[in-house]
């Protein structure tokens, strides 16, 4: 058990040129914002980094080599923005890349497996942009992705599921298209039938993105035979803690949005799976999210603790052991587990925070 603390300036009349005071050595010159920008790599990166830097220090590359290094070290969100910006600046047609990728997927044996994997990756990256996602739907790109979803190769399956997750994320138009294409049952089949952790993780991500904010897809999910049980089975060992965490978070969302789901989770077999996901050395985030799910269930039925004890008699003792271990930590480390402790207290009481 790791227990690690997890306005635009108003226009002013142009003054007459004045001599500029000499800047102390090592002090940065103020950046002048002009409508004309240096179009070299260094100049473009300087402008973009300046415009997206926020309130922190602004580091402007001093050479093209330094500019390239700066780009490589940007955080993920700014790097993606920069790539999109540079693509637009140079006239790159993102849909051309998507169309080329679709052609590769449809080329049969003329393209290698690796080429097709790269094509799926290209589509996945591009459709994170909601406008490109809509264009992708307009050219019926979903029809090609369905083929990859049904491919027996796990790598094709998880890449196709990832595309569906990116399409559906906060995108009602895409969710409507996915509902019309009836793709949710196929994704659920991947979740239930595959023994490949990445396939199951990406399938669960797709299902989560599909149902969030879509009453239609939520209804479709809940109407599938054993949909909740198939989701719960992702908690079974051996599996990855990442998959278990995503499963617990998804179940909690279902309970919040559809309280009737709690009745299924109160069944002894379901409670046993939720309880058994936790072990003494389980991931800290899994402990926190699992306890949060259980406290959510407790809110709907305060008989939860007795039902857990009946389904998994050793569980309360394991939670108490975990709680005592956390309470023995230095205060700073203990504070990192405050939410977990609060959920434990809601369930079992007798804890002084």
TrEMBL record:
Keywords attached to this entry: Repeat
Gene Ontology terms: cellular component: endoplasmic reticulum
Annotated segments matching region Disordered: 1-38
Nucleotide exchange factor Fes1 domain span: 41-135
Superkingdom of the source species: Eukaryota
Pfam families per the UniProt record, alphabetical: Fes1
Recorded GO MF terms: adenyl-nucleotide exchange factor activity
Presence of the UniProt keyword Repeat in the record: yes
PANTHER family: HSP70-BINDING PROTEIN 1, PROTEIN FOLDING REGULATOR
Descriptive protein name: Nucleotide exchange factor Fes1 domain-containing protein
Organism: Salpingoeca rosetta (strain ATCC 50818 / BSB-021)
């Amino acid at each position: 058990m790791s227990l690690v603390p997890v306005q635009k300036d108003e226009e002013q009349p142009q003054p007459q040129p004045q001599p500029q005071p000499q800047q102390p050595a090592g002090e940065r010159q103020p950046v002048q914002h002009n409508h004309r920008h240096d179009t070299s790599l260094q100049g473009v990166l300087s402008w973009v980094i300046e415009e997206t830097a926020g309130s922190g220090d602004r580091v402007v590359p001093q050479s093209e080599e330094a500019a390239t290094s700066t780009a490589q070290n940007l955080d993920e969100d700014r790097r993606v923005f920069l790539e999109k910006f540079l693509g637009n600046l140079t006239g790159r047609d993102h849909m051309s890349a998507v169309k080329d990728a679709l052609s590769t997927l449809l080329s049969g044996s003329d393209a290698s497996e690796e080429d097709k994997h790269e094509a799926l990756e290209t589509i996945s990256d591009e459709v994170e942009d909601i406008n490109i996602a809509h264009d992708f739907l307009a050219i019926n790109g979903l029809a090609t992705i369905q083929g990859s979803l049904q491919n027996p190769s796990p790598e094709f399956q998880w890449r196709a599921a990832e595309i569906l997750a990116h399409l559906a994320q906060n995108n009602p138009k895409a969710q409507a298209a996915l509902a019309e294409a009836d793709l949710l049952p196929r994704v659920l089949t991947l979740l239930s039938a595959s023994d490949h952790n990445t396939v199951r993780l990406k399938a669960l991500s797709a299902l989560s993105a599909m149902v969030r904010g879509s009453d239609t897809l939520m209804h479709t999910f809940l109407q599938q035979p054993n949909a909740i049980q198939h989701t719960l089975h992702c908690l079974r060992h051996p599996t990855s803690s990442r998959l278990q965490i995503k499963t617990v978070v998804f179940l909690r969302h279902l309970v919040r949005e559809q309280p009737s789901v709690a009745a299924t989770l109160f069944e002894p077999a379901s409670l046993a799976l939720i309880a058994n996901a936790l072990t003494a050395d389980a991931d800290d985030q899994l402990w926190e999210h699992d306890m949060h799910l259980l406290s959510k269930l407790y809110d709907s039925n305060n008989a939860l603790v007795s039902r857990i004890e009946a389904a998994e008699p050793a569980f309360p003792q394991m939670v108490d052991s975990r709680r005592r271990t956390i309470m023995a930590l230095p205060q700073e480390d203990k504070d990192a587990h405050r939410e977990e402790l609060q959920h434990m207290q809601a369930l079992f009481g007798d804890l002084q925070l």
